[in-house]
Request: fold
Amino acid sequence: MGFFDKIKRAFTGEETPEETEVQVQEKYDKGLEKTRKTFGERMNELFANFRTVDEDFFEELEETLIGADVGFETAIKITESLRQEVKLRNAKKPAEIQNAIIEKLVELYEQEGIDEVNELNIQEDGLTVILFVGVNGVGKTTSIGKLAHQYKLEGKKVLLAAADTFRAGAIDQLVVWGERAEVEVVRGKAGGDPAAVVYDAIEKAKEQEADILLVDTAGRLQNKVNLMNELEKIKRVIQRELPEAPHEILLVLDATTGQNAMVQAKQFKETTDVTGLVLTKLDGTAKGGIVLAIRNELHLPVKLVGLGEGIDDLEPFDPNDFVIGLFKGLLKEA
Ligand code: GDP
Ligand code: MG
Reply:
């Protein structure tokens, strides 16, 4: 089933075959309430305020899209292709092209995501090492705690490495998450060498035949060179012990920071082999358009999304569910 059909179905409230699918969709709906409301409100205002589709309308549309954090390039791209579409259809009233706009957004989103792998690269046999990187406060430690909990529930043996040794508080925070998720945390002294902690963690993971090792790292960007060197060193230590690892380097981004998150992503991408994104705090933003910007401008797959502060508020990223959440209610019944 295509994106558009799925959205339509969600809009008309038709039954979904699997119950789990419905539950995940509900979670997305709830987490994206703010985003949808504002994105939807803005779009609805736009459609209400214009009587004819003219150049002013397109300018306003562009601004609306930029305001929703879809990114500058993406906003231009969408608006440009809509100009063509309107000409083709010879549409005069905004309402006539409302569905076309949504279709276009979905289509563009779909195109850019071809070949995108949203699943985490988890080894069937042996240890999977996942490194979490990102600036302070984006939600690295919280996401690790949530993910540890999920794998633990799946019956996997999980270990955490407290390689954010920069602040004592950071280690303690991971230990608290370890307790919540009931998984062991390998830690060193505050101010110690993060690579040494990672080394210990890998040794321990091998000893215990663990399935998953999640590595927390520091994110102080005020010293970018040091930070990148530190990440490189951690990576080297991992690769010496396990040549194929790390299996994922996940960059954590705070969705509420909008274009700032995009800048961080570009910086990290330049110096680190980021394999995917964790987009946190989607519950707290009215600007879900950032997911479109990420697709169009970064070409990094979103792998996980944070939809709240609780231990269960982490979901695998499902592009279908996401666009449904974003555009639901905007489609007009034909
Ligand atoms: P770190 O510095 O990258 O390790 O960030 P933390 O894991 O310490 O998270 C910083 C703050 O963001 C904490 O108060 C978390 O509770 C909060 N947080 C993390 N993820 C989410 C999320 O998905 N939604 C919301 N609302 N808050 C989050
Ligand atoms: Mg942290």
Observations:
- The chain has a mean pLDDT of 85.
- The chain has two domains: 1-114, 126-317.
- The pocket of guanosine-5'-diphosphate (ligand 1) is lined by residues 134, 136-142, 173, 219, 252, 280-281, 283-284, 306-309, 313 (CB under 6 Å).
